[in-house]
Fold each of these.
Amino acid sequence: MAEFDVESVFRSFDTDRTNVVWKWKLLAELERSGLRADDPRIDHALTWVMKNVGAGADARIAPFDRGQPEWLDREQFQYLVREPVIRKALTDDLAMPTAEFADFTAGIEEIYADLLDERSGAVADYIPTLAKADPERFGIAICTADGQVFQIGDAGTEFSVQSTSKPFSYAMALEEHGADFVHQWVGQEQSGGTFNDRLRSLDASVKPHNPMINAGAIGTLALVDAEMGDSERLAKLQYTWGQMAGAKVPVDEPTFLAEQDTGHGNRSLASAMANAGNLYKSSQGIAGPIRATDFYFKVCSLEVDARRLAAAGATLASGGVTPYSGERLFSPENCRRVLKVMEHSGMYDDSGKFSGKVGLPTKSGVSGNVMMVIPDKRLAVVVFSPRLDPTGNSVRGVQVCERLVEKFDLHPLQDLGTDKARAAAAAARQALDGVATAGARTDLPTTMDADYYGSYQGAAKAPGLTRQ
């Protein structure tokens, strides 16, 4: 990290020499680096400092009126920049440097504009709530491991996550049980069929081929907190999603009920697995497959938008550490396993062709979302566009991924055998192995006031993180 001279930085913002830093000017600089004003870390740090430090802490001084320009005095600014992500932004030490972030997001804007008139494909119609989706919706969002965000179009439109939940369900099972145990129940090979193909979903021993198809996701979710009651189990899973996304992730109840009404094929798969002894806790009789599929339907019905899903993807890109709370949820080894299975089986029956062209771990959902993880840049890209191709992948989503990879030379084998390829491989390894410590915000300066640190930790770890 570059050397940080607080006084020099303060003077660089105090251009009119009033011995204050205007809040809007600081936020504009942070936004240029990719950090938004509604980032929970920035929001919390600003609120805490302006309430507890300097003039803002004096009860005799009235707070700022609504609409009045706000400023930070020297003492407040000195406290504020102890927040690690703000300090990293002001020293250009975030996951993606400011100039590269600007270049990358400009490329996304160009691709977005080029695809606005793309209207091939059709929305999924086998689940009633998906059939009602507006086919014109189109949004793109990115999030880096440090929480740098860019979004365009309908990136704030909510949708059910559907099959893009599967990598995270797999990660949770791996984290709880370890790979050896998980793969006693679910394989890790390509299925050679569609995500819901009853004949090809299960191998000769009636075990799901991999965690990215329906049968495999039912199998991995059956392993997650199986000893808990259903409501407690769902609450814990939603807490994990909230930590990844930086916001509450509710269940879309109409979609869940629609999945229940139409999910006969999934129940049939679960029953076949249970009958062969390949569904965890299947000794519960008929309740076992029903419980497993209902939990699967709930998870597919989690409601996100492109920005929140990109933050979840950035958790995988960072080797298991969440962008906003800094909590380690998954080990780097488990993230590598998840990303590898995504790379070869994440795009339904087009996974092989997509992998050859794009080469990056990607997962799609039939609500029209596509999540691509770029480990060497420590970020995730999410596209939302409900029109699907015949295999169930978003038409625009696939094209965004292909164009980004081509425009920025992102294919892992693009420069095979060159120095650039070796450097990229080393960067990818570092991206997944670099965050070695467990727990949250270990880089917090020791001079940070304990009251601030404690108040942030208490807010960040509360179930159902609500700040957006």
Amino acid sequence: MTPLVSIITPLYNSEVFLEDTITSILNQTYSNWELLLIDDCSTDGTEALAFRYRDNYPNIRVFKNQSNSGAAVSRNKGIAEAKGVFIAFLDADDLWKINKLEVQIKFMQANNCSVSYTSYEQIDEFSKPLHKLVKVLPKLSYGKILKSNYIGNLTGVYNASVLGKIIVPNLRKRQDWLMWLSAIKKSGKPALGVPESLAYYRVRRDSISSNKMALLKHNYWVYKKGLGYSTLKSFYRMLVFIWEQFFVKAKLIVSTKPQK
């Protein structure tokens, strides 16, 4: 029997994209999954849409935060409620290819792997391809991911039966990076990358990833607050991060636009 996979999806005013995201899960060739939707006090139709899917699919569960608390609180609530052997993550505006779980879980089982991630492609707010592929490194050590987050959260999966449930630090942004750092550290061995592109990351104009200066600030807090580094050490790690991000990691983003 295939092991249960718990999929954690935080929600906040996600009505525009949520239906496509859930559909990409419903279409998975891997059928033994549960979807945990955690609404962070949305003010649009997100909550009603989530409950509509819950009422029609027994493997979809919905939870709601008492107050708007951020993605970390939502993810932690989902992780606490998860029943799966494997825990996966998909934000409410991203998409999976139909064979994502099947390929990745088989890969993890075949390689005795506790943490894995995959390549993925970028799309715009209208689901049109941006012709950019984010390739993975074959292996990812703790030291390497400390330099920059190489795991697209929409692609990451960890084995909770081996590592236990990993609680996300309560930072408003970039808490997923800290989670993958913790997962790799707990596993005692590198995470493994699936070279196949298995997901679509939606690039939105209002997202933090589109604002480079805001991104740098939040990455600094990963080192300072998340890892407890001194101010001096945090600034040093940021210099390493900037180099890694813009001169090493950037080379993994390749064009898929057909040549004329």
Amino acid sequence: MPNRSLRRFAAVAATSVLALGAVTASTGPARAALPTPVSAATARGYLAQLTVKAENRTGYDRALFPHWITVSGTCNTRETVLKRDGSGVVTEANCAAISGSWFSPYDGATWHAASDLDIDHLVPLAEAWDSGASAWTTAQRQAFANDLTRPQLIAVTDSVNQAKGDKDPAEWLPPVTGYRCTYVRAWVQVKYSYKLSVDSAEKAALTNILNGC
């Protein structure tokens, strides 16, 4: 088959697959498309207003924060963030990402398989519980766990997210030092938005990073 015919056949085949709804493509620059966090100055103001108190994890269970709920059609929160944060993301009819490119700002790595990524709760669910979410309703915890409006959810390298676990900024910061100011600004914004407290070591770490922003 001549090269021109091969190209025409490939184009027709791709068009037919898309028409059947098997895959869809979402294009855009590779980026960590978090909602932009507040400025360092605003974050410092927010931090000054946060209550400082010891944390209490009594009764915590991850299941108390229903997450990866349906956002639109067949897409849940995880799939929505993968599409938002990736470049050239192709999804199946059930919204699962089958290809694309994702940049993880925590460690500067680029990935081409969704299985290499976790969706990080920037303020971890356990940390939220420790600092006030234990008093919330299930609906409030669900809203927190699926928040696409604030800089709370981000696609990052799975092993880096697992190393972070439920640690706060006194215990863990992104390996890429140039991203730490953004990370801390987002952390303070989320805690302020949800009226969550900070412990003394956490506040000291946040203050130190913000003063250098």
Amino acid sequence: MTTKTTGAADAALRNHIRALLTERQAHVLLDDVLEGFPPGRINDRPEGVPYSAWEVLWHLRFTQRDILDFVRDEGYVEPEWPAGYWPDNTREATPEDWHAEARTFQEDLAALLTLLDDPSTDLLAVVPNGAKPGGGGQTWLREFLLVADHNAYHVGQLMLLKRLLGGG
């Protein structure tokens, strides 16, 4: 059984989640990483690092979209883990690819924030795909926090790569 948050508590919780997704809350934001990132180095893998900045950005965007699809698309099908969550490394990305991924990431984040701001989104309710047979019982709150946690982790990796690659 789920108890819906109401009134001031609901508004406060939504504000905290929004801040976690959009403000510097003990972590940097993607915009902080993108500013001054050396575009000619997006495909480089520093010594000892198993991925490039391009691969991390692609994964970050893809996974956020996957969560968005999970919460809103009835026909959602989970990609194969872990291979389905990382790019095919058969080609190098271009700066245009880099910017397109960043733009799509921001668009998908805006879509998640729209769901967060919708008063009909009961944060403690199980999302439709989580309620299906075999679903994991995931709530809206859990999915928003998962996005915030995952984004913070990988944006931090991108910031480290930026420094290692000479972007400041």
